């Protein structure tokens, strides 16, 4: 089956946002963008959950989108987070991303206000009809408090600009239904589930751990896409402890920011209410990075 959004197959990186004294550190950000491009990733996803979008001002959010688009200069795709629990705000941010030159928009399910399934449908329908960019439906009920049910995604798949699903429900059953009942491209939103999801037909991932080891994530996804599941499993098990730490030690992006600091690629600063990883957990993380060969 030819899937809508297949140009976004592969490895997208949910970029962290570096800060210094409460402001975005654009010099460090440029280094991180170049690091990912050198690794050959397929797409960069700034200002998502990992990029601390909930605590950036609207002006900062837009500046980061424009900055990443400018720095990539077409060398890789850019799919910024432009979602909101206000449909009007999501439309505004998405139109900005389109004007800035982004390739697609990552649309988190409206959070906190807990829409009905019809509310989810109407939210994404408006985005699809009023914005020209391909839309990636980001379903992460662990954060948003409500699942976009497969039946709703089947309805959304009929809309021209709904192209991709970032599947972060943790349910292989839901992933399988979306793949079986739609022609949408599905990307894993949980690093530890990327390989299992690709085994049933997903096309790659929007990865947090790729902030640390993009080449290894790309090797796993490429092997799975080529049908070499023996090689993909080898990479999966190599990555597994790091994936577990990025999701298990504390709320994302606390662990990945701590890891970037240990690797000398970030100062670890976050915006409140996000706080640094507690010291005993830092030592556990240090052990994982050492075991992996990064320290």
UniProtKB/TrEMBL annotation:
Its EC number is 4.3.3.7. GO terms for biological process: diaminopimelate biosynthetic process; lysine biosynthetic process via diaminopimelate. CDD domains: DHDPS. The record marks 49, 112 as: Part of a proton relay during catalysis. Pathway: Amino-acid biosynthesis; L-lysine biosynthesis via DAP pathway; (S)-tetrahydrodipicolinate from L-aspartate: step 3/4. The active site is at 138 (proton donor/acceptor), 166 (schiff-base intermediate with substrate). SMART domains: DHDPS (SM01130). It catalyses: L-aspartate 4-semialdehyde + pyruvate = (2S,4S)-4-hydroxy-2,3,4,5-tetrahydrodipicolinate + H2O + H(+). One of its GO terms (molecular function) is 4-hydroxy-tetrahydrodipicolinate synthase activity. Keywords: Amino-acid biosynthesis, Cytoplasm, Diaminopimelate biosynthesis, Lyase, Lysine biosynthesis, Schiff base. Pyruvate binds at residues 50, 206. Its main location: cytoplasm. It is found in: Cytoplasm. One of its GO terms (cellular component) is cytosol. It is an enzyme of class 4 (lyase). It holds the Pfam family DHDPS. Homotetramer; dimer of dimers. PANTHER family: 4-HYDROXY-2-OXOGLUTARATE ALDOLASE, MITOCHONDRIAL, DIHYDRODIPICOLINATE SYNTHASE. Belongs to the DapA family. Catalyzes the condensation of (S)-aspartate-beta-semialdehyde [(S)-ASA] and pyruvate to 4-hydroxy-tetrahydrodipicolinate (HTPA). This is 4-hydroxy-tetrahydrodipicolinate synthase. It comes from Pseudobythopirellula maris. The gene is dapA.
């Amino acid at each position: 089956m030819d899937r809508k959004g297949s140009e976004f197959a592969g490895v997208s990186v949910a970029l962290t946002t570096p800060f210094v004294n409460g402001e975005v550190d654009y010099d460090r950000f440029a280094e991180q963008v170049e690091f990912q491009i050198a690794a050959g990733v397929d797409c960069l996803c700034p200002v998502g959950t990992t990029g601390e979008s909930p605590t950036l001002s609207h002006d900062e959010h837009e500046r980061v989108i424009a900055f990443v688009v400018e720095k990539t200069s077409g060398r890789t795709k850019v799919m910024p987070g432009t979602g909101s629990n206000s449909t009007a705000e999501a439309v505004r941010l998405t139109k900005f991303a389109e004007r800035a030159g982004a390739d697609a928009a990552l649309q988190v399910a409206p959070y906190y206000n807990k829409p009905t399934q019809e509310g989810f449908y109407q939210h994404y329908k408006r985005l699809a009809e009023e914005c020209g960019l391909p839309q990636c439906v980001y379903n992460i009920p662990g954060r948003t408090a409500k699942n976009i049910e497969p039946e709703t995604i089947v309805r959304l798949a009929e809309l021209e600009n709904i192209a991709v699903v970032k599947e972060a429900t943790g349910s292989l059953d839901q992933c399988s239904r979306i793949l079986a009942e739609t022609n949408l491209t599905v990307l894993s939103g949980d690093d530890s589930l990327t390989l299992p999801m690709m085994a049933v037909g997903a096309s790659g991932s929007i990865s947090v751990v790729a902030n640390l080891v993009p080449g290894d994530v790309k090797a796993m996804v490429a092997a799975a896409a080529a049908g070499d599941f023996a090689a993909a499993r080898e990479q999966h098990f190599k990555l597994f402890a790091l994936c577990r730490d990025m999701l298990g030690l504390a709320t994302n992006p606390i662990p990945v920011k701590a890891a970037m600091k240990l690797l000398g690629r970030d100062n670890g600063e976050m915006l409140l209410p996000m706080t640094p990883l507690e010291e005993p957990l830092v030592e556990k993380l240090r052990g994982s990075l050492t075991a992996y060969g990064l320290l």
